[in-house]
Design goal:
By secondary structure, the protein is mainly β. The protein has no helices and ten strands. Helices cover about 0% and strands about 40% of the residues.
Length: about 110
């Protein structure tokens, strides 16, 4: 597992989310939940919507396409809380104001 720079911390205010396109890696959705940075695979397990462009409420994001909700800490889908509908979680860290994400993802 290796960490990669994905965004500046200043671009992710508490209570907001962000989609990040990466070279040679899946697109990542970043979330700032009260200062804790969390990351999921950006591709919604339902039909591919960009979770990082959804609406964050606490630690739950609502997909912008059809409104399914996911816990951004666990990846669990609130509508279908089974492993096949969970979004993959990534470990994150912040180094010198830069958000880093570890690949590959953890099992949801
Ligand atoms: S693509 Fe996310 S809810 Fe349908």
């Amino acid at each position: 597992m290796k960490y990669f720079d994905v965004a500046k911390l200043e671009d992710l205010e508490p209570g907001t989310c962000l989609s990040v396109e990466l070279d040679n890696a899946p697109s990542v959705a970043l979330f700032n939940v009260d200062g804790k940075i969390l990351a999921l695979n950006n591709t919604c397990p339902h039909a591919g919507g960009p979770l990082g462009e959804g609406t964050l409420d606490g630690e739950v994001v609502e997909c912008p396409w059809h409104g399914w909700e996911f816990n951004v800490r666990t990846g669990a889908c609130m509508e279908n809380p089974t492993p096949e509908w969970a979004a993959s979680c990534y470990q994150t860290r912040v180094e010198n104001g830069v958000i880093q994400v570890a690949f590959p993802p953890e099992a949801a």
